[in-house]
Amino acid sequence: MKSKSVLIIEDEAYVLRILKTILETEGYKISTAKNGDMAKTNILTHQPELILLDLGLPDIDGIELLKKIRVWTKVPVLVVSARSTERDKVLALDNGADDYISKPFSSAELLARIRAAFRRETIADFVEDRYCVGDFVIDFEKRMVSVKSMPVRLTQIEYRIVELIARQPGKVLTYGYLIKNIWGPYADTDNNRILRVNMSNIRRKIEDDTMNPKYILTEMGIGYRMSES
Amino acid sequence: MNNKYIHRSNMNELSALFLSVLMSIFVFLFAQLIMKSALYGMAFLIPVVILFVFRSNQFLWNLLTALSTVSTYLFLSFVFPGSMPLPYGFMLYCSVSLVLTAVIAGTKLLSSREQHKTDERQKLRDQLIAEINTKLLTAATAEELYISTLQHLHIVTQKSAVFYTSDEHGIQRTASFPAGLIIYEKEASFALEAFVLGQPVGVGTSHERDTSFLFLPVKVSEQSVGVVGILFSGEALPSSSLIEILQMILVRVGVALEKHRLFRAQRATQLDKELEKVRSDFLRSVSHDFRTPLTAILGACSVLSENQFSIEKSDQQELISGIEEEAAWLLRMLENLLSITRVGAERFILHKNPEPLEEILEQTNYRVRKRFADYHLHIDQPQELVMVPVDPMLIIQVLINLIENSVKHSTDRKELVLRVEKQSGQLVFSLRDFGSGLSAQAQETLFLDSHDKISDANGGMGLGLIICKSIIEAHGGEISGGNHPDGIGAVFTFRLPLEEINEE
User: 3-class SS at A32?
Assistant: First the structure.
């Protein structure tokens, strides 16, 4: 199998060395960039299949660079940052990042996230008519959800939420993203109460044990994610 | 009031005199015609004179009245045809004693009545002052003091009032009664005058100005600390005895204000000292908590590098695992610290959002499963959907810290029970473990800064619980902990308000 190419945008030499070692050991082809300009050149000329972006770059605000990258390419971008608050994560995710890892992280975690990002990409290439995980099945054509072969009665809004999440399994969808896609681009994203209440109801309907959800997973303070296995 | 007296006495005394003389004529006629002897009439004069002398306590007037009455009577007895001339001695004696008795009796009686009235007034005044004193002493804030003062002045004067205090910008209006009183800017300059002069300015004073206000300075040992303005609109003018009463009241107000200021200054210094102590204690305990794992890490690294070729693979692995563990612990400690500084900062704005309780509990459960895999966490929550206004990551951190604490004191029974229930507008969380419980000493110092605590082998139980307290209190809740009444293990409880409270 052809090894995937990954661009690492990181300015600290020490961290760069470690990341390079981890990824190369795993079999990825690595190219590096120390600042925004080098990143741009690399993306446009080498077209990496995945980008690892450190938000703490010296010459440009990480989020600004992220926005620009999204203009140049559609490949998965994993954002790495020393800041770990939910607001920073939400900001990155809402601006086009596919995933967010806070420093410090273990190599295992990093590799798992990269694998997940690649997997999501391949799934997205196909237009699915249904999605299954465990005992959960959602049929996009019939607009029906069932768990353990028993149909689940969902309200219109509840179905749309589940559908949105199920169409991008494994990807964290922020509250803001969900609200805008269900209630329109002018919906108030500061108040996510209705979404949260809907999600609680959905969970009660589809999960065996709401204290151990298997299908729709919580990213506390950020959003929700459909599980993949 | 003096004016009024003179005014009144002019009329009253004159009419009393006139009436008294009239009465004496009648008495004479009665005595002469009915009783055939003017002598008997003299006896009747006594009550007459006394009655009319009663009108005032002005000695001179009384004397005049009595004299006129008696002389009229004597004159008539001389002049009236057919009346028996009375013996001179007797007449003189009667007249003098009559006059004297009447005058003295009248004056004394009246003055005692006046005295009584004055006493009554004095009593009322004292009562008012006592009331005001109590109010002033129990006022918790300066604002309460101002309002209290104005309210009492209103009771005494039935007028609206305003309070001015001074600061570096000059004189400022700090309170008014009633609250919405509209006052022109120019009044402030008169208030300032009263403040600077240390004397009343305005209506009814010797410093009359173009204002309907009476401005009285509030003084503390001859230094002005504020000014009270009382609105005398219309015809009403303050009398000087009223101004006297008001000034007496304001003396007490000044004392209370001064006490208040001193108390606040004292409090501020005390707080500063306490803060300094907390800060230095905190730093001391943190630096200790950091050195321990760092020493272990550096030690392991040096062993590994010095014995690179001679060390057993298994030993090597052990050292490396140790480094990983200590580093991971340091990281968690750091996150805890960041929470503390976030929560403790003066400008800390808690990002509260109504969060579903279920999600908070489910996330806690997830983290417990990952970190404390051999533990079983029972969760008991309300049936219905509960939304609670919190910063969810912080509350999860509190729960994890409490659970971590329980795990540190665990025995064989690796069970934890987390119960959440709604209780009168609050959400009550209680975490129960079946471990070794809290020692008596630990119970005392549970949430205090770790300087007072014993740092145990696992690196101190201090920080985690302090953070829990900071977070819960920042949410407007309370936290407590103790041993379970069963005698097995400990219970930690915290409450969070279910209603959003606007924090300024």
Answer: strand
**Chain A contact present for B358, CB below 8 A:** yes
Task: Give the H or E element holding residue B438.
Answer: none
Q: Do B356 and A196 touch (CB under 8 A)?
A: yes
CA B34 – CA B75 distance, rounded (Å)? 19
Report the amino acid identity of residue A100. Answer: Y
Q: Which long-range contacts does B269-273 make (Cβ < 8 Å, 24+ apart)? A: none
* Averaged pLDDT in 10-residue chunks for chain B of 504 residues: 47 78 82 73 73 68 78 78 67 76 71 81 77 74 84 84 83 82 83 89 86 90 88 81 86 85 85 80 77 87 86 86 85 75 60 90 90 90 92 88 86 90 93 84 65 43 73 87 86 88 44
Helix axes B313-344, B240-306, angle to 10 degrees: 170
Q: What's the rounded Cα separation, in Å, for the pair A88 and A92?
A: 6
Q: Across the interface, which of B351, B363, B385 has its CB nearest the CB of A200?
A: B385
The DSSP annotation for B10-32 comes to: HHHHHHHHHHHHHHHHHHHHIII
Tokens of B486: 């069963």
Q: How far B391 CA lies from chain A's nearest CA (Å)?
A: 8
Task: Say how far apart CA B149 and CA B110 lie, in whole Å.
Answer: 37
Q: How far apart are CA A81 and CA A87, in angstroms?
A: 12
Cα distances (angstroms) measured from residue B205 to each of A73, A130, A162, B199: 86, 93, 82, 9
Cα within 13 Å of Cα(B483), Cβ side: 15
CB count within 10 Å of CB B313 equals 7
Q: Which two three-digit tokens encode residue B137? A: 């002493």
Overall pTM > 0.80: no
